[in-house]
Amino acid sequence: MTFLIDAYNLMHAVGYLSKATPQNRMESSRRRLLDWLGDNARTRPGDRFQVVFDAKAMLSPLADHVHRGVRVRYSFRESADDVLIRLLNEAKPGMATLVSNDNEIQAAARRNRCAVLSCLEFVDWLIAPVSESKPIRTQPEKPVEAIDNDELLNAFAVPKVPNRRRRG
Questions:
Q1: Is 168 part of a structural domain of the chain?
Q2: Can you give the pLDDT at residue 15?
């Protein structure tokens, strides 16, 4: 199974990053996440981890590389979300699992019949002994159906009360 990981989303969820993290500590926070994932990747030989960092504002692209068995990608001139959605669109159904708390990316994964794990679900799965780990569902529980906006508006519209004139 390939795990497509929303890097900064996971970093926030596990406490490696916060809004108060100074810019000069970002690299060490990223390395800490990659080291942790690399250590866990060794215990799960059939699984591949691919991490996408948002580098949209960089002046030049950063080279993709492998860190301790984890494939590391950086977005350039696009968001990490855009890169993840593109990777999900390219994935064969049932062959990728998205790790993110972002609803928009999760919806894209489900549309492409990829499994979805929240960051904390992924952490729980990752730290569980391999013998106790539950298999990742490769198909969503229910297919995501397109919603007709007019139908939705009509369903939640305030009912119109007929205007009755008083007699008398």
A1: no
A2: 87
Residues of the chain by 3-state class (helix, strand, coil), percent to 5: 40, 15, 45
| Model pLDDT for residues 38-78, shown as the tens digit of each residue | 998 888 888 899 999 987 666 566 778 899 999 999 998 88
Residue labelled with tokens 């691919």:
50
Q: How far apart are CA 111 and CA 93, in angstroms?
A: 10
State how far the alpha carbon of 23 is from the alpha carbons of 7, 29, 64, 138, in Å. Answer: 16, 10, 21, 37
What's the pTM? 0.75
Its domain, for residue 63, covers: 2-155
Number of domains in the chain: 1
Note whether residue 108 is domain-resident.
yes
User: Is 133 contained in some domain?
Assistant: yes
Residue 135 falls inside a structural domain = yes
Tell me the torsion sign for CA atoms 158, 159, 160, 165: negative
Amino acid at 23: Q
- pLDDT tens, 139-162? 544 554 555 666 656 666 666 666
Give the tens place of pLDDT for each residue, 12-33: 999 888 888 777 788 889 999 9
